[in-house]
Amino acid sequence: MTSIRKNIDFILTNYNLGNCMSYSSISQGYANENYKIITNKGSFLFRICKEQIFEMINYEMKLMESLKKIDFPTAYPIRRKDQEYITKSAIGNIVLYEFKIGNEPKLGKNVTHEMATAIGTLSLLPDNENFKKTNVINLPDCLKMIDNFPNVNCQYPEIFKDFESIIAFLHDSLLIDLPKGVIHGDAFPDNTLFQDEKLVAIIDFEEANYDNLLFDVGMTINGFCFKNNILEKELAQTFLSGYNETRPLSLTEKNLTYHYIMWGAIGMAYWHLRHLVKRPYKTQQNRVKELINRVKIFQKSKQYKSLFTL
């Protein structure tokens, strides 16, 4: 019996979910290892949290309880016999979730509108002030990273130069006070499940936090309105229309959407750079270059700026 199977069997003793009949790996990302497990009582998601500390996972569990009150489309965690959600183990903190059936979507107007409505609904979460956690992607930490570029283990001079230039361009816009609330922070196609262009679930709330709501607008546009690293104007308009139907943007937010689309892209680059400056990883390095190029192309286009400013 493999090590992972032994761990699954042991963890399941804490639940009323029956015995494991089979399991299969779903994904092994930067932060988690995910397995589909099938027991005699159904199918479930078995997640090993590799990066998140216990307190941050607990934050996510409490947020899930709040989302359940508004019937938000996601995969909810399952309580253990002792009513707790998290199991501490030698292989990491483990949480079991509902297993939702769906697929990563193909980008299109219907899919984009579904996401706009969902993100708008999340923006209106009634008790959002109970979840004041700082976004891991934030301007002060980006500036600290820039200051520390000369001292890091791995040097990427061209990337560092472009990153610093983009942050300088966005700096003042990111200081403007905007409506705040709970954001997902990572609403990309691979964190969603769809059936026939209908949203089944937005998953992976580990990056959720309390920030400017416009951050989620910019980030989700990055996830659902870019093809081949170029913004699709029609998809962006579809997203903004759908979002405004749920939560109308203020005039200030509308005029800053242009900047927050860039902030979403360079923020993702920052997320990867935190790891790259410590050790090289070609996949992440290529992703950072792609995101920086996305911003540079977007920044040079006059039609995009006129599209998002009044």
Task: Annotate the secondary structure layout.
Blueprint: H1 3-12, E1 20-28, E2 32-39, E3 42-49, H2 54-69, E4 87-89, E5 92-98, H3 109-123, H4 139-148, H5 157-174, E6 180-183, E7 192-195, E8 198-202, E9 209-212, H6 213-224, E10 226-227, E11 230-231, H7 233-246, H8 251-276, H9 282-300, H10 302-308
Antiparallel strand pairs: 1-2, 2-3, 3-5, 4-5, 6-9, 7-8, 10-11
Helix pairs in contact: 3-6, 3-7, 4-5, 5-8, 5-9, 6-8, 8-9, 8-10
Number of helices: 10
* Total E-strand runs: 11
| Secondary structural class | alpha+beta
Helicity level, as a percent range? Answer: 40-55%
Strand order of the largest sheet: 1-2-3-5-4
Annotated CATH homologous superfamily of the largest domain: Aminoglycoside phosphotransferase (APH), C-terminal lobe
Order of helices and strands: HEEEHEEHHHEEEEHEEHHHH
* Text of the CATH class of the largest domain: Alpha Beta
Shape: globular
State the low-pLDDT regions, or none: none
- End-to-end separation: 63 Å
Taken as a percent bin, the fraction of beta residues is 15-25%
Radius of gyration from CA coordinates: 20 Å
Major sheet summary line? 5 strands, antiparallel
CATH architecture of the largest domain: Alpha-Beta Complex
Chain-averaged pLDDT: 95
What number of structural domains do the residues give?
A: 2
CATH fold category name of the largest domain:
Aminoglycoside 3'-phosphotransferase, Chain: A, domain 2
